[in-house]
C-alpha cells in the first residue's frame, strides 16, 4: 500500500507515521516457519486504527499458526486476542518476532520432546536456567522464550490465555536422539517452577506422543 493511500485514510498522524514505517519495512513479507500456513505482513484495504488495552493499533499481520490477525501497536509491539480470549502483548518488537521465528526455523527439524506448562493468568514463565543452554534474549519476549546451544535448544511459547490460567508449550530440541531420550525431561522439570507435564500431542509432527515417552521423530522437512 502506498504512503499516499495510507495517509489519505489514516485519521491520526501518529497512526499514519507508524503504518507508513511498517509498510515500508515489512509490507509484502511472507514466510512459513515449519512448512504450514504463512506469516503475512502488510496493509490491505481500509487503513484505520482501533483501540486496544495497550493503546491505538492497526492489524498488519496475519499469523499462520493462529490463522488470526495480529495488531501492531504504535510503539512497535504486537498484540493478539484470538476468539474470546483477551488481547495480550505477544512481541516486544517486530524484530523480536522475526528472531523467534528464525530460531524455530533453525531447530524445528531436530529431535524433540514437547511439554505443557501452566502458570497463573498474566504471570510470566519463571525458569531456573542453570541446567538450560544460554538464553537468547533477542528472540525472547512476553509470549516466547528461547535458550540455545550447539546441540540443544529450548522453546517456551504462550499458546493459551483464557481467563483462568495461561498455558505454555515447551519444546526441548536436540541434534541427537539420545539427548532427548535421557536429558529432556530431567532438564525441563528441574528448570520450570510451574506445573509442567509431558505433552500428549506433538504439534510439529502432528501426531500423538505416547505417555511417558519422548517424541523422537523428526518432522517432515519443510519446503525451502
The oligomeric status of these chains comes to single chain
What name does the CATH topology of the largest domain carry?
TATA-Binding Protein
How many angstroms does the end-to-end distance come to?
27 Å
Question: What series of H and E elements makes up the topology?
Answer: HHEEEEEEEHEEEEHEEE
SS strand fraction: 25-35%
- Text of the CATH class of the largest domain: Alpha Beta
How many individual domains? 2
CATH architecture of the largest domain: 2-Layer Sandwich
What's the overall average pLDDT, rounded?
90
Number of helical stretches of at least 4 residues: 4
Protein name: DUF4262 domain-containing protein
Organism: Paractinoplanes lichenicola
Description:
The chain is an alpha+beta fold. The chain has two domains: 3-91, no CATH class; 101-208, TATA-Binding Protein (2-Layer Sandwich). The protein contains four helices and 14 strands. The two termini are 27 Å apart. It comes from Paractinoplanes lichenicola. This is DUF4262 domain-containing protein.
Give a summary of the structure in a few sentences.
The protein is of the alpha+beta class and 224 residues long. It has helices spanning 3-9, 13-26, 94-107, 177-191; strands spanning 30-31, 39-41, 50-52, 55-63, 68-73, 78-80, 88-91, 111-120, 144-148, 152-160, 165-174, 195-198, 201-202, 207-208.
